[in-house]
Amino acid sequence: MALSIRDVQPHDLDSVLALNNAAGSTILPLDVAGLRGLYEEASYFRVAEVDGHIAGFLIALREDARYASPNFLWFRAHYPEFVYIDRIVVARPYRGLGLGRVFYADVTSYAETHVPQLACEVFLEPRDDVSLLFHGTWGFLEVGQQTMPSNGRRVALLAKTLCSYPFVRDTYLHGPTGRLPDLPWLGERVRPNVAVRGARAAGGA
């Protein structure tokens, strides 16, 4: 099995939309406009390819994203800097291969060099114990609950403190250069709307 994790490309979006809307009740459906908005706003949007086929994706956003999700807005109201995992989907034929853990290792590697918190939510209605256990083993703790106004479903709001971030912040982001080393794996995703919004200052919104 040949596996690669790479940044999403425009030609991937039809496949991503189909995967999202076939994922079941634990993933909120998207339309073309909604996915396009995430494509433009996400600071992390990567797909997994297995033997040349898109097998899954993960989308995450920084705290300054233009995004109206009530769960994202809850975290914005409580944390000044964070990476919010909006959704992760693995296609049914590729489940059980550990792609979820591969994605979480990758997004954690991104987040811990930029922010102090990694955040997400898990549905409690219906209760998703598999996802709750998965996130617990990754060090997430429940920091709140709320009911989503769009569908009346209750969610657990989870956050993970990234213990590596203080070293990165003090040594690099707040250090002599004010920036991370110029290495490909530390680079920010180039978003389509970056020219309109302007570049984000190092280490903050």
From TrEMBL:
InterPro entries: Acyl_CoA_acyltransferase, GNAT_dom. Gene3D superfamilies: 3.40.630.30. It comes from the Bacteria. One of its GO terms (molecular function) is acyltransferase activity, transferring groups other than amino-acyl groups. Residues 3-163 form the N-acetyltransferase domain. PROSITE patterns: GNAT. This is N-acetyltransferase domain-containing protein.
